[in-house]
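hi!! sorry for the late reply, been swamped w classes. u asked for the two structures so here they r. pasted raw, havent cleaned anything up. first the sequence of the first protein and right below it the tokens
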Amino acid sequence: MKKMFTIVLAITFGLVSLNAQYWTEDFEAGLPAGWTVEGAMALTDAATLASQYYAPAEHTMFVGTNDDALGATGDGSGRLVSGMIDLTAVTSTSLVLTFQGHFADGDYQGTDETAKVSVSTDAGATWTEILDVAGTGNEWRDVSAVLPYQGQQIWLSFEYQDGGGWNYGFAFDDLRIEDAPFAKELQVMNWNKEQFFSGGFAGGKVYPGATVRNLGVETITSLDFSYSDGTNTITETFTGLNIGFQEAALIETATAFILPEGTSTIGSVVIDNINGAGDDEDPSNNGLANDITITTVTPNADRGVLVEEATGTWCQWCPRGTVFMDGLTKRYPGKFVGIAVHNNDPMAVANYDGSYEPSSAADDVAFALLIGGYPSAVIERGGELDPGNLEAPFVTAVQQAPPARLNIGAEFDEATRALTLSVDAEFLEAGSGHKLTAILYEDGVTGTGTGYNQVNQYSGGGNGPMGGYEILPGSVPASQMVYDHVGRYLIGAFDGDAESLPATVEAGERHGYTFATYTIPAGVNLDNIHIAGVLLGSNNRAVNALSVTLAEAEANGIFVVGTNDVFSHNAVSVFPNPFSGTTNIKVSLESSADVTVEVMNAIGQSVFVRNYGKMIGDQNIEFDGSNLESGVYFVHVRMGEKLATQRITLSK
């Protein structure tokens, strides 16, 4: 399914109308005769209205209300009702109401402040809502709505409700009724969330798209979205849209652009064939000039990087973390192990987010001690970062060799939902003080009630684009929110189970650890569950991580605790290397052993596996890579209890 969401943006971003105006009101002469204000609404100016958190810039005289100034128990709700506005002589078929608005739409602590405009044709006996104002950011902006009341007498209502909470306020000025600037006109505003990123793995995914806005009164129902990958032009048709006047929508292609190895450029975006009838009235704003350049990196085949994000639905800037976590997960598949640690909302988990007893008094570490604000993130339990600064340190970490290779196995009882989990560590180097832990997390989490509403400071676009959140309300309803990477439970201690690994280990040793059985709650969707196994160093920093699905862990089964494997890399060689089609894997065995060969790509996906049974002496195994893409691969050969790994390069 194509991904697209729409919100009534109702902001013209400084467009100047050159069309006929039929009525105006700027309040410079005071409140007109026959106009009334109710509740906390009043004729005012910027100095009189201002408070700490709601202070519109100077705008001479205007009408407004300040809920913030009234404190936690005050109610800034109110309404202005106009006198009769005579449009009986107006015959225009594209009539609109436009005004300067200042509406935070901040929805503090999940409450829902609203600003709505309604019309009456019977002197206020009945009202019809024509606009639910979206946030304008912390600034005055033009706000518009279609006004199909030509030839009639009308009354206008501007109403603010604080939602029962301590919110911000609403102000408006410079009202005018005029012709719409366009009949059919679509503007491409900016790239979707991929504009924030610069790298990925070969095989990673991006979904090109853009935020678009309808500046015309004709509803947009279909369009063609095209972009170039530097060689080819890819076009996708979107149908079934419903983008009304001054509404904005985020569209994203349903088909991913798969990142090739090296550097690629995505650009030359054009939207045309609007409503199946070619261009609109101003084709000059139907594209994006700024290209996106993405350069791939090659990870260490055995490395995964744990990233933990501090977030909460109450946190007004936390959509930022959601956007960056989602993008990095798609472009660095299998290696970016991202977990959202929720705080003070329905998805918060006490044994992860809150304070609790560590596994030993000497290891007094908890997630809450690693972060100082929201949103923020930590890579491998290191220093606190803004979510927008995760990519560079992640790329550095994912290319480093880990102390041990990890694997995860499990047994699961569907009837009782009891999960028994084990993590297996094959050590590549000697060390001491290592421990293991495991984390259960879930994608696709939804809920009902205001606790699942996401507060959104990016609403209105005043704080720039943010993956489409700029066109969503200041409090995104639970019905529109899907939460990924949600930390559900710490299977092991936050700082690792003290008994999970020996105090010292040698290169070549393999140790498996089985955690205490955990019963997965009924509300957790088993199809969306992921299990992260984490190896911690002596300083409690994560030094490797691996994520698998529940089904993948079950397929592995529980690992045997305390087994040792010996690495014997000199027992295997590959020639030719690099190779173009086939190559030879030479295995030298002093005694009979069961031999299994597995080939993995650069992001850790298995592309070939075969058991060759018992072998002895020098054996030659031919590997055919003609059906694979060019790139770096890793050959893993298990010979009984011995292991060997060789890096190979396929070049066609």
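now the second protein. again sequence first, tokens right under
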Amino acid sequence: MPESSVSMPQDPRVWRLRLWPGLLLIALILILVIVPGRIWPLSLAHFVSLMAGLMLGPVLVLIWWIVAARARGWDRWLFPLFIVVPVILLGATLLRDSIQCLLLYPVPLAVMFWVLWLTVTRKLSRPVRRNGGLIILLAFWGLVACVRFEGTTATGRPNMRWCWQKTDEAKFLEGHVVRAAAADLPPVVIGPGDWSDFRGPQRDGRLTGITLNTDWAAHPPKLLWKHRVGPGWGTFAVAGERLFTQEQRGVEEAVVCYRQDTGVELWSWSHPARFSDESSGPGPRATPTIHDGKLYAQGATGLLACLDAASGNLLWSTDIKAATAGVMPTWAYASSPLLIAGNAIVFAGGKNGRGTAAFDAGTGKLVWVAGNAGHSYSSAHRAMLGGIEQVLMISEFGIESFDPAAGTVLWSHEWRTQVSRVVQPVILSDTDLLVAGGTGTEQGTRRLRVTRQDAAWKVETLWTARNVRPYFNDGVVMGQSYFGFDDARMCCLDLQSGDRKWTSSAYGHGQLLLLADQAMLLVQAVDGSVALVRADPGACEEVARFPALEGKTWNHPVIAQGRLFVRNGQEAACYELLK
């Protein structure tokens, strides 16, 4: 028999694997995770591709390994076991707030390490390649067990901490003294210079009637107090010496009243509820509203509560979901109650014309429910258009206007999106307003003109600026300029033409407050610093900046009675700004 026809036995120490499909899948994961985010940041395409890369990609790698990698016997099942079992064990031992963190980040890294290890060790023996790879996976999962995921940046990059380090919430609870309802405190009355609502009395982020110190080089803001708070992504309401906000405190959500001059807690009211997600972490999202001596607060899971603002005693509460057949949004309820016409109006999220709801401010009973808002993180907004007082609600549908007393739909502008709408509408005049498109879409920002003749309403689109795409960052108006955000870039938009005048990436996903009498923007940067920027359509000119807070800051700044109040998910502070 010719020598060439003799079949030579395979060396059992050699591991002949088909690796090229695995490498192609790893490349696909990297492309899906990285590329769409660079081209269409924060868009639906970005999030879909990110989830596909992080979740579907590893599944395809495991299928390839079992079916087509030419692994035999136990070798075929060891690798999947070293992926699936650690996820189950880590999830079962509650080393994570949510198992999604394990699926979104470590699992893709684990399969990438495995495939790359087998690729670079082609010339090594089978036992070395197999056992070495399993040892690497064990070491990797050991490292994962030592890491805690604490939310992400706005673009999805994870924030991590060693698991033996206490969370900011745990540090707060460790030193916190629980305070019950207060007694013998005077009634809360809204006065000049107070900040009664989310983004101010008109919900427009605009401060008037006061001149503040803006020479921070010579007279830097004076720190009056700073202390830890429970997680929360709303901001403050201020009346007289009282400062109100919402926080997560362990397994309960709390509405809290502090002294605004010292930061000392006066009272708190809490109820069992906890919402947490992989992006922002735990905590309520909304800001309480002060009205007629009462405080109205909406929790992340949908509880609307009315408290006596002086004592913190509960007057009434209602479950928005149960009352309206609503569906909680992906990142929880974030609507700050609007008090108007004797009603507390909030986003409800019910289907079939049950998107926005009004509850009697005195009793909590449902007064009306209407509209197409199925998904929104915006709040009801008061407006005077065509001489008629009305309530606006922005959602994935577009924008709708309601009679605040009866809930009758006055007009609507359908501008649908499949992603989130967060920011407030901007009222420009008796007829005009700005509406932002969905998060990360090419819809941009639109100027509408709303007119009324007899009983008929007409809505026209004047222009659409597709390069001004706010995420959850509100804007303000000064003269004929709109100052806001295009994703993570602060920008200026000409209101007449819709042209973008300038952008700046110095503040990330920050928030704005307008010092209208001084033509200044107070900017709360995402890193916790606070800056003064001239409200100049010609250029972005920063005047001063100082580190007000530490850590990720998505919350809106507040100025009341000449003091700056800032907070994020871990601390709050008060600075004196008066000259």
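hope this helps!! also noticed smth abt the second:
The CA atoms of residues 221 and 577 lie 6 Å apart.
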